[in-house]
């Protein structure tokens, strides 16, 4: 039996080993067992073959339907109340709706401001501001009266809702200035005593603004000005500016309209012979399309203007390019921008007075054709708290207004206070300006902020020898510091480069003299103390370097000016 057992095992293993030779006849063989059989197994190996599936059908995944039975579980866990961490937080400063400021200083200077605003209802409001600034004069070596007086009242009433916002404005301004800038040591005392150097200006305005929330009427404004002086000069100006916006194929189409009407007169020209009448109505249509794609912003438009002359002058039609764009080169760190823009600028007697108080009431008023202003610049951030802006430009202006001294003349036999070489007229010329501008602003901390900017311009003229009274270089800088929660201070510095001026003088061989007004700088400072959330005391100083400079020919400025005052905030 034992030998039979070994024979059966041997036959089984032999059949496995030779099973793959299916078609081979193995025949018969007699095996003599002389010892027990010891099987061996070879090393395992992997068949390197990828089987192919002949079945093209794929089995469908059966949808398994199941239900979840939810039921409430009663929990006995009660979380404990959290305790806020201790965070040092300064108390928020209360904002008041109204304030009153009073200050006084040397040269008999008085400054006062009163601002009030009140909500009539949830939507309606009223506001008003009263401002006064005056000085009794006293400039060194000035022999005429050099006092000044400026008082203005502005009122507004408006309403704000989601669908409609509007406001109505009204105001009045009264100004007194003196033509004190006569040539030193030129006139005898008799003539000086006979000069009436005072000029008085009045301005009355009415206006309003309307904005519709869900409408193609984006915004509309209207304003009327009545401006007159003590010499019978009067000017009326009416400006209407409606703006519309449409959405076409996911792009915004803007259309700005403008109607600018001006009419005025001067009783006589500088020679005292003829009355001056002027009047223009400028009509403008400025369509544009705004395109925003990723980092690119583009506003492409054109301006169509027609200037209709009512008095002297010529009616003309103008077309201006109005294209601006910007591209984020490196996010907000560097943004390149460029543009070419032009427009028709309406000049006025009031605007000339705002720029130069010492103009004579004998001006020629005409619009300026700003043909184009081509500029290219970079702006962005050097750090989170430091921003910059640099720009180069080329400005082409036809009929640009330049202030020029009236000088001395023998053709005017009147005794008006502006004919003694102490007033300015306006001349027009074709002026081209190449300009460079740079600006840097930095917030070193929440308590210290600094800013500086500078402009360099190069002018070229067609008729006039120079661009009169326009400086080539302007620099301005500010520094504001919060010293403590109670104390604050600040500095302001500005520099103005040389200006060219021409003074008419019949006694000279050429009939005039050319002057170069020296450059100057002015240093101003202030310090303040917050007594409480309502009351603040301050001390201001102007021209602290005591510079004896002239902004206009023969018009020196006051020396060191110091003024102390207080400001009080309140609510009704």
Overall pLDDT level:
86
User: What gap, in angstroms, lies between the N and C termini?
Assistant: 125 Å
Order of helices and strands: HEEEEEHEEEEEEEEHEEEEEEEEEEEEE
**Total beta strands:** 26
Structural class: mainly beta
Residue share in β-strands: over 45%
The dominant shape is globular
Low-confidence stretches: 1-85
The amount of helix comes to under 10%
Largest sheet: 22 strands, antiparallel, barrel
The gyration radius over C-alpha positions equals 43 Å
Task: Please tally the helical runs, counting DSSP H or I stretches of 4 or more residues.
Answer: 3
Describe this structure in words.
By secondary structure, the chain is mostly beta strands. Helices cover 5% and strands 55% of the residues. The protein contains three helices and 26 strands. It has helices at 2-17, 189-194, 349-355; strands spanning 98-105, 109-119, 124-135, 148-160, 164-178, 198-212, 217-229, 234-248, 251-266, 276-293, 296-309, 316-330, 334-345, 368-383, 386-405, 424-445, 448-461, 473-482, 487-496, 499-504, 512-517, 520-530, 535-542, 550-552, 555-556, 561-570. A hairpin with a 4-residue loop joins strand 6 and strand 7 (217-229). The chain is globular and about 70 Å long. The model is unreliable at 1-85 (pLDDT under 50).
Which helices and strands appear, and what pairs or packs with what?
Layout: H1 2-17, E1 98-105, E2 109-119, E3 124-135, E4 148-160, E5 164-178, H2 189-194, E6 198-212, E7 217-229, E8 234-248, E9 251-266, E10 276-293, E11 296-309, E12 316-330, E13 334-345, H3 349-355, E14 368-383, E15 386-405, E16 424-445, E17 448-461, E18 473-482, E19 487-496, E20 499-504, E21 512-517, E22 520-530, E23 535-542, E24 550-552, E25 555-556, E26 561-570
Antiparallel strand pairs: 1-2, 1-26, 2-3, 3-4, 4-5, 5-6, 6-7, 7-8, 8-9, 9-10, 10-11, 11-12, 12-13, 13-14, 14-15, 15-16, 16-17, 17-18, 18-19, 19-22, 20-21, 22-23, 23-26, 24-25
């Amino acid at each position: 039996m034992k030998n039979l057992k070994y024979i059966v095992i041997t036959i089984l293993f032999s059949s496995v080993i030779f099973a793959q030779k299916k078609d081979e006849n193995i025949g018969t063989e007699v095996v003599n067992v002389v010892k027990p059989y010891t099987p061996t197994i070879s090393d395992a190996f992997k068949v390197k073959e990828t089987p192919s599936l002949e079945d093209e059908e794929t089995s469908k995944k059966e949808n398994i339907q199941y239900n979840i039975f939810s039921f409430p579980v009663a929990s006995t866990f009660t979380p404990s109340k959290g305790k806020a961490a201790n965070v040092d937080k300064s108390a928020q400063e209360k904002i008041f709706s109204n304030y009153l400021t009073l200050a006084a200083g040397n040269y008999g200077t008085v400054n006062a401001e009163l601002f009030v605003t009140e909500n009539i209802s949830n939507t309606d409001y009223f506001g008003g501001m009263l401002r006064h600034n005056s000085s009794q004069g006293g400039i060194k070596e000035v022999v005429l009266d050099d006092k000044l007086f400026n008082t203005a009242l502005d009122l507004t009433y408006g309403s704000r809702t989601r669908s409609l916002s509007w406001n109505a404005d009204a105001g009045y301004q009264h100004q007194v200035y003196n033509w004190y800038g006569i040539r030193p040591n030129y006139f005898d005392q008799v003539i000086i005593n006979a000069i009436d150097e005072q000029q008085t200006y009045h301005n009355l305005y009415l206006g309003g603004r309307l904005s519709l929330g869900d409408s193609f009427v984006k915004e509309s404004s209207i304003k009327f000005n009545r401006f007159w002086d003590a010499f019978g000069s009067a000017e009326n100006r009416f400006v209407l500016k409606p703006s519309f916006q449409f959405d076409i194929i996911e792009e915004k189409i803007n259309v700005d309209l403008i109607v600018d009407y001006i009419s005025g007169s001067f009783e006589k020209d500088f020679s005292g012979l003829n009355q001056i009448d002027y009047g223009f109505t400028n009509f403008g249509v400025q369509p544009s399309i705004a395109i925003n794609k990723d980092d690119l912003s583009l506003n492409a438009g054109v301006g169509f203007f027609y200037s209709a002359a009512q008095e002297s002058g010529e009616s003309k039609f103008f077309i201006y390019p109005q294209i601006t764009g910007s591209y984020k080169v490196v996010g907000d760190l560097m943004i390149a921008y460029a543009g070419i823009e032009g427009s028709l600028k309406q000049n006025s007697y009031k605007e000339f007075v705002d720029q130069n108080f010492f103009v004579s009431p004998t001006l020629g008023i005409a619009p300026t054709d700003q043909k184009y202003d081509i500029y290219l610049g970079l702006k962005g951030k050097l750090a989170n708290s430091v921003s910059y802006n640099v720009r180069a430009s080329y400005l082409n202006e036809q009929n640009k207004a330049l202030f020029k001294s009236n000088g001395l003349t023998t053709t005017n036999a009147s005794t008006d206070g502006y004919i003694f070489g102490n007033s300015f007229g306006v001349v027009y010329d074709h002026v081209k300006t190449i300009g460079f501008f740079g600006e840097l602003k930095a917030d070193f901390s929440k308590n210290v902020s600094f800013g500086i900017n500078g402009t360099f311009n190069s002018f070229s003229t067609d008729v006039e020898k120079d661009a009169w009274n326009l400086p080539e270089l302007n620099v301005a800088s500010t520094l504001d510091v919060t010293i403590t929660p109670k104390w604050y201070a600040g500095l302001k510095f500005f520099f103005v480069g040389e200006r060219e001026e021409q003074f008419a003088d019949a006694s000279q061989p050429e009939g005039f003299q050319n002057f170069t007004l020296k450059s100057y700088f002015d240093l101003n400072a202030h310090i303040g103390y917050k007594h409480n959330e309502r009351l603040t005391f301050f001390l201001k100083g102007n021209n602290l370097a005591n510079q004896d400079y002239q902004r206009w020919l023969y018009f020196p400025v006051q020396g060191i000016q110091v003024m102390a005052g207080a400001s009080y905030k309140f609510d009704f």
